[in-house]
Amino acid sequence: MSIVLNIMLLAVGFVGLIKGADFFVDGSSALARTVKVPGVIIGLTIVAMGTSAPELAVSTSAAIKGANEIALSNVVGSNIFNLLAVLGVCALISSIPIDRAIIKRDFPFSIIVTIGLFIAVSFGMFTGFDFLGTPMLENVGMISRPTGIVLMVVFVAYIAVLIILARKNKTGDDEGKTMPIWKSLLLIIVGLACIIIGGQLVVENAKGIAAAFGMSETLIGLTIVAIGTSLPELVTSIVASRKGENGLAVGNVVGSNIFNIVFILGVSTTIHPIAVNYASVIDLLILVIVSIIVLVFSLTKKISRIEGAVMLLMYAATVVFAIVR
Predict the structure, then answer these.
(1) I need a labelling partner for 139 at 20 to 30 A (CA). Which of 16, 69, 266, 296 fits?
(2) Residues 52-110: pLDDT tens digits?
């Protein structure tokens, strides 16, 4: 496939992402109001899982094909991009108010599961066994199949808690556009389809362009693929922020990061254990540090434009580090 065709299909993918995100935000926010569920809950579940569909497809496919570096670096790179680039861009558009529940419940949970994964992988690389006693692959660490199952159980428990809390606190937004449930669901489905197709077009053609320039698999996974699969989060959060749906914008990012770690890695490693090299452990450590920094920014209950600019500079630094090493 020629570079010109890659670029043309890349542009088509961007259009699909933008229009799909627009439909998705409208349908999700309308549904939240109709069923009296807080927009932040919709952002943490439906929108987060929908916009993480490209990561799920790429990481699962990579795990099946044995492309372990892409399977893991895609998730880690996507989470770093979500925290620094997505929230950073949204903050530059307008200061982002942070829901108290996200600061007290969801953000800390995201950091805890990330630290847990980092400890599990690091433990395995130095002892030869994971924390469940599964032997590691020779000379490298591994996220084993039992670990993947544990991650999926954690995800199910997390979603169950969100549903229980939503049922106890049915307080939706009264202001804003409402529509029949069937129309909301139709917009969500159409938007999700556009997002997935657009995301895949962007990822595949970005990979083709990157491969033509001789980039390594690790670098492609951490940058091009990670950014490509995170474009739905970026576009959806920007659209949500511009529409004043800040609960969706922030909930989408935090929910996607949780979804990426506990569900996508859970599914991928249950299908096929993922080998982990030292570079990936360093990337996980960077993700933990970045997560804590963004949480500190959020403690003021908003992320300002200045903090957004700092986050974008931090992301640029992580990309430079990935390229230089």
Answers:
(1) 266
(2) 766 776 777 666 766 666 677 878 988 999 899 989 988 888 888 887 888 888 899 99
